[in-house]
Amino acid sequence: MDSSIAWPNDVVARYLTVAGAIVDLTHGDRYYPTDDGIGETRNHTLATCTGCRAAEEFSHWRVVKRMTFDDKVRDPEAADREACKWAQAHASECRALPRPTV
Ligand SMILES: [Zn+2]
User: Fold this and answer.
1) CA 61 / ligand 1 centre spacing (Å)
2) What is the pLDDT of residues 92-102, one digit of tens each?
3) 52 Cα–ligand 1 center, Å
4) What's phi and psi for 86, nearest 5 deg?
5) What is the domain count for the chain?
6) Which domain range does residue 65 map to?
7) How far is the CA of 40 from the centre of ligand 1 (A)?
Protein backbone atom coordinates (compact mmCIF):
# COMPACT_ATOMS: atom_id res chain seq x y z
CA MET A 1 0.00 0.00 0.00
CA ASP A 2 1.59 3.23 -1.14
CA SER A 3 0.11 6.03 0.89
CA SER A 4 1.74 8.64 -1.33
CA ILE A 5 -0.78 7.89 -4.08
CA ALA A 6 -2.88 11.01 -4.49
CA TRP A 7 -6.36 10.87 -3.04
CA PRO A 8 -9.28 11.68 -5.27
CA ASN A 9 -10.45 15.23 -4.54
CA ASP A 10 -13.77 14.15 -3.10
CA VAL A 11 -12.34 11.76 -0.52
CA VAL A 12 -12.65 13.28 2.96
CA ALA A 13 -11.19 10.34 4.89
CA ARG A 14 -9.63 7.02 4.08
CA TYR A 15 -9.20 3.83 6.09
CA LEU A 16 -6.96 0.89 5.34
CA THR A 17 -8.60 -2.47 6.03
CA VAL A 18 -6.80 -5.41 7.63
CA ALA A 19 -6.75 -7.07 4.19
CA GLY A 20 -5.21 -4.07 2.45
CA ALA A 21 -8.35 -2.72 0.83
CA ILE A 22 -9.54 0.84 1.36
CA VAL A 23 -12.64 2.36 2.88
CA ASP A 24 -13.25 5.80 1.42
CA LEU A 25 -15.45 8.52 2.86
CA THR A 26 -16.94 10.91 0.36
CA HIS A 27 -19.63 13.57 0.43
CA GLY A 28 -22.51 13.36 -1.97
CA ASP A 29 -26.01 14.57 -2.53
CA ARG A 30 -29.13 13.11 -3.98
CA TYR A 31 -32.40 14.58 -5.10
CA TYR A 32 -35.51 13.41 -3.28
CA PRO A 33 -39.01 14.11 -4.55
CA THR A 34 -41.39 15.54 -1.96
CA ASP A 35 -45.19 15.62 -1.73
CA ASP A 36 -45.35 19.29 -2.76
CA GLY A 37 -43.55 18.51 -6.02
CA ILE A 38 -40.63 20.81 -5.30
CA GLY A 39 -38.30 18.14 -4.02
CA GLU A 40 -35.13 18.62 -2.07
CA THR A 41 -31.48 17.73 -2.27
CA ARG A 42 -30.07 16.02 0.77
CA ASN A 43 -26.37 15.75 1.44
CA HIS A 44 -24.73 12.75 2.98
CA THR A 45 -21.41 11.19 3.82
CA LEU A 46 -20.84 7.90 2.05
CA ALA A 47 -18.44 5.23 3.28
CA THR A 48 -17.49 2.70 0.62
CA CYS A 49 -15.27 -0.36 0.99
CA THR A 50 -13.22 -1.17 -2.11
CA GLY A 51 -12.73 -4.73 -0.86
CA CYS A 52 -16.23 -6.12 -0.36
CA ARG A 53 -18.22 -3.23 -1.91
CA ALA A 54 -20.06 -2.61 1.33
CA ALA A 55 -21.37 0.92 1.54
CA GLU A 56 -23.12 2.91 4.22
CA GLU A 57 -24.72 6.31 3.88
CA PHE A 58 -24.93 8.89 6.68
CA SER A 59 -27.30 11.76 6.13
CA HIS A 60 -26.15 15.28 6.94
CA TRP A 61 -29.66 16.11 8.02
CA ARG A 62 -31.25 15.31 11.31
CA VAL A 63 -34.72 15.91 12.52
CA VAL A 64 -34.86 18.00 15.67
CA LYS A 65 -38.10 17.88 17.65
CA ARG A 66 -39.46 21.31 18.51
CA MET A 67 -42.55 22.15 20.53
CA THR A 68 -44.98 22.07 17.64
CA PHE A 69 -43.01 20.94 14.62
CA ASP A 70 -40.01 18.94 13.46
CA ASP A 71 -37.06 20.98 12.33
CA LYS A 72 -34.41 19.75 9.94
CA VAL A 73 -30.85 20.66 10.81
CA ARG A 74 -27.80 20.11 8.66
CA ASP A 75 -24.85 18.67 10.58
CA PRO A 76 -22.20 17.28 8.21
CA GLU A 77 -19.64 16.90 10.99
CA ALA A 78 -21.87 14.58 12.97
CA ALA A 79 -22.43 12.52 9.82
CA ASP A 80 -18.68 12.42 9.21
CA ARG A 81 -18.08 11.26 12.76
CA GLU A 82 -20.59 8.43 12.39
CA ALA A 83 -19.16 7.50 8.98
CA CYS A 84 -15.65 7.42 10.45
CA LYS A 85 -16.86 5.14 13.24
CA TRP A 86 -18.42 2.79 10.68
CA ALA A 87 -15.31 2.89 8.48
CA GLN A 88 -13.02 2.23 11.43
CA ALA A 89 -15.08 -0.76 12.55
CA HIS A 90 -15.43 -2.10 9.02
CA ALA A 91 -11.71 -1.67 8.25
CA SER A 92 -10.77 -3.70 11.32
CA GLU A 93 -12.91 -6.68 10.37
CA CYS A 94 -13.22 -6.73 6.57
CA ARG A 95 -11.06 -9.42 5.01
CA ALA A 96 -12.13 -8.92 1.41
CA LEU A 97 -9.49 -8.03 -1.13
CA PRO A 98 -10.14 -5.67 -4.03
CA ARG A 99 -10.18 -7.43 -7.37
CA PRO A 100 -6.91 -6.58 -9.12
CA THR A 101 -7.40 -4.40 -12.17
CA VAL A 102 -5.94 -5.94 -15.33
ZN1 LIG B 1 -15.30 -4.44 3.22
Assistant:
1) 26
2) 999 998 877 77
3) 4
4) -65, -45
5) 1
6) 11-93
7) 31
